[in-house]
Design goal:
The structure is a homodimer of 281-residue chains.
Chain A (H helix, E strand, L loop, with lengths): L4 E5 L3 H10 L6 E5 L3 H9 L5 E3 L2 H7 L2 E4 L3 H10 L9 E4 L5 H6 L8 E7 L20 E5 L6 H13 L4 E4 L2 H23 L13 H7 L6 H9 L2 H23 L3 H20 L1
């Protein structure tokens, strides 16, 4: 009898890192799939997976679990193109930073295929397999958006995977809640980072950067096609969070310009206490 | 003949870290000065300096170099109170994140005392001697604002100190340029961090934080009295930078709400290229 297998579709930063991190998971064979010859040859040379191939059809037909690690639209297109090619009883999951559009796209899958949306909250400001890193998911939250019909066996499998790759915990939620919150905790942080880099003083500030500047702008050198899709597919929620940020910055500017240090101190104490409470709880 | 000595006035996070980092610097005796008995006893127990004392007058009278490591107003007040107590020929410096008000305050010093404003660009989101860390300044920029009359010997001394404590480089500038740029690279990053924590969703987002959120809000649990002074004393420059940020965020929201992915991609590509250029040069 053949060992069960996990197929990773797309060996970019996340797919490649997931393939490395998954190696040694129970008795599963880890199969990496990509269309790009350079990516495949790098993956083969660095043993990113137990086996690598450009034959998505065969890999999908044999896999017990399929990880879709493409850009958002690529994931939706792949499910549509391969809807009848998945093995009955298998589980399909993804690693995408938005969930509504992905889970909607998963409705093309036949009833014999389970789908659990996934978002391991890890990343880097770089992309591509050459930056893949098996420790990328250490201490990260692994967010899952199961279907009402997802089986306990499939949920348990995802939990064992999350533990194997070193995640801090598994958080189950709905697609709507995921996308609303991620607009705040991830997408808006990326918008802030790029907005900071639009300041006319950017290039004159060399020699004056401290830790807070490096941390805040770290993610600004982002993968433009990927983030254009992520932002566009979550436009409503993200727009609301950016508006809140504009308002909160404006409120700080007003109290600063009022020249009242007591009012500024009170406002800072309020925000700093919220951050401390966030750290402690 | 006695060894030369360096007196550190104020053994908080920065003064304590500087004292530890300075140990072993040439043949200087490192003298830590603080008024708080708990701080002094901690400093003595952990050998933060070669000698610790609450007698600022004697330490200042004997010191060849005095590091003022108090809050901004405390530095100005200390120079005023001890104006006639410094040893003729000595150098006074500080570690404060703003320079205009400090250097203006240094005008009370007699002509026999040199003053070079200093800002080692390092910090932590904590305060107090218990968090002092001798590696705090590793790879940091050390910014100096010398007087036109500052001696080459004193500038060379500061450069050797910067090297001893592990700084990346020494950057010389004017007080005005320092305060304008620091409003952007440090102060505005702190305002953004607290503004992010004012979002109504802060406490519902637990389980959904990734690296970008942790990085961007790291400094939000700030020392309120210290930062109230720093922000207030640089109100004009900081207000301008916050306004730019509001405008840049607003511009991103407008292109997002327009629903034009090509325009969003173009804007993201512009900002990301600026960040990459900043990283490379």
């Amino acid at each position: 009898m053949m060992n069960p297998s996990i197929a990773l579709i797309g060996l970019g930063l996340i797919g490649g890192s997931m393939a490395i991190a998954l190696q040694g998971f129970e008795n599963y064979e880890i199969v990496g799939v990509d269309r790009d010859p350079t990516t495949l040859s790098f993956a083969r040379k660095h043993h990113v997976a137990d086996r690598v191939t450009d034959d998505a059809e065969t890999a999908v037909a044999q896999a017990d679990l399929v990880f879709l690690c493409l850009h958002p639209r690529g994931i939706v297109d792949f499910m549509s193109a391969h809807r009848d090619g998945f093995r009955p009883g298998c589980l399909v999951t993804d690693v995408c930073g938005i969930k509504t559009a992905i889970v909607r796209g998963s409705s093309v899958l036949p009833d014999s295929v389970d789908f659990i949306g996934g978002h391991p909250m890890a990343g880097k400001e770089t992309s591509g397999i050459t930056h893949a890193d098996g420790t990328l998911f250490h201490e990260a939250h692994y967010i899952l958006t199961p279907r009402p019909t997802s089986t306990p066996e499939h949920l348990a499998l995802m939990a064992r995977i999350a533990a194997h790759i070193g995640c801090r915990d598994v958080v189950k939620t709905t697609v709507e809640q995921h996308d609303n919150i991620i607009a705040y905790t991830s997408q808006a942080m990326h918008i802030m980072a790029v907005a900071v880099c639009d300041d006319p003083d950017l290039f004159t500030c060399r020699g004056f950067e401290g830790g807070s500047f490096r941390d805040c702008t770290r993610v600004a050198a982002l993968d433009v096609p990927l983030w254009t899709e992520l932002f566009s597919m979550n436009r409503g929620a993200l727009s609301t969070v950016i508006r809140h940020l504009e308002e909160n910055l404006h409120a700080y500017r007003m109290v600063l310009e009022s020249g009242d240090p007591a009012a500024l101190a009170e406002k800072l104490a309020y925000s700093a206490a919220r951050k401390r409470r966030m750290n402690l709880e």
